[in-house]
Amino acid sequence: MTTTRRLTGFKPTGHLHLGNLLGALRPLLAAQAHTDSIAMIADLHALTMDHDPARVRALTLEQATVLLAAGVDPDRTPIIVQSQVPEHTELHYLLECVAGFGEAARMIQFREKSAGGGHVRLSLLTYPVLMAADILLHDIDQVPVGEDQNQHLELARTLATRFNTRYGKTFTVPEGVRPEAAARVMDLAEPSAKMGKSGSTGRIALLDPPEVVHRTIARAVTDELAVVRRDPDRQPGVTNLIDILAACSGRAPGDGHSYGKLKREVTDAVEALLTPIRARHAELSADPGHVREILAAGVAAVRPRAIAAVRRTRTALGLLN
Ligand code: ATP
Ligand code: MG
């Protein structure tokens, strides 16, 4: 029996937050034992928008450390930094030769993020092709994706299928899998928007100290209705708190709860998840050299397969190997 191969990516554009934990990291941890998963810090993707070099480098190491602190087992799940596996960029170019300009320009995220005008990096346009390369390079068959990534995954499937049809079977065509619980954690200050790494005030970063977590939840936007119930349309803030409580603790709020009591319960549930992550992170960050070694081992673990995939692709396209 062959084991399912999965890839989960995190962009070093900010501190990892509760949405990343519940939507991506926990599903990765749950799947570790029965899949061949790869955890990737997508540093090349962090270069598609205006960026601060020192910050990207620091966040890359921080995210790797947080993944380890949260329980990613590097012996089971290689943790790789995207740019340290040069085959990602090599395959990216080769796949650009089967992707259409219109296909890339049509991507909703590209249109949204480039809408402000100004200087738009060409890499923002081509990044979905790099994402396809990330997936196809490692023979991934399942990609856990939030809704915001559906269109990009579809492009990866299209490119794989087109390539296989035109040049012979080269790639596994990946499937999207949706994480079950809390697929989308909303921003606590603005519950109509998803919690994100940048530009949000109602975000709980995994390394926030307890008093910050406490304050962010205490200030979470609710409503005037004063009933604790799930009603995403009329009570998005309260619904988000209920969903976070369920995702963190498996519990529903008790009957007759006030918003204050609900917030205290959510705070306790979130703290129960974050306390051990913070503690382990503090231990691990005392020895960054050890984390760097784990990253080097991750690269070494995935590279043979990546090199083989690029070689197959080169041959299929008519390049002299
Ligand atoms: P950015 O704002 O830079 O896009 P992000 O917070 O969306 O940052 P990513 O690095 O793009 O984080 O995503 C990492 C993983 O976390 C992805 O699998 C993504 O689907 C998931 N994720 C991101 N935000 C949330 C959220 N609010 N709820 C659930 N999952 C999320
Ligand atoms: Mg994102």
Secondary-structure-based class equals mainly alpha
Please provide the count of β strands.
Answer: 5
Instruction: Report the average pLDDT across residues.
Output: 95
The N- to C-terminal Cα distance equals 32 Å
Number of helical elements: 11
β-sheet strand percentage: 5-15%
Radius of gyration: 21 Å
- The outline comes out as globular
Poorly predicted sequence stretches spanning 5 or more consecutive residues: none
CATH first level of the largest domain: Alpha Beta
Name the helix and strand elements from N-terminus to C-terminus, one letter apiece: EHEHEHHHHEHEHHHH
Total of domains: 2
State the CATH architecture of the largest domain: 3-Layer(aba) Sandwich
How do the strands of the widest beta sheet line up side by side? 1-2-3
Overview of this structure, please?
The protein has helices at residues 18-31, 53-70, 87-96, 101-105, 108-114, 122-137, 150-167, 210-218, 236-249, 259-285, 288-317; strands spanning 5-10, 36-41, 79-81, 142-144, 175-177. With 321 residues, it is mainly α. It has two domains: 5-183 and 288-317, Rossmann fold (3-Layer(aba) Sandwich), CATH 3.40.50.620; 210-283, Orthogonal Bundle (Tyrosyl-Transfer RNA Synthetase), CATH 1.10.240. A three-stranded parallel β-sheet has the order 1-2-3. Helix 2 (53-70) packs across helix 10 and helix 3 (87-96) runs parallel beside helix 11. The longest helix is centred in the C-terminal third of the chain and has 30 residues, at 288-317. It is globular. The two termini are 32 Å apart. The mean pLDDT is 95. Bound molecules: adenosine-5'-triphosphate (ATP) and magnesium ion.
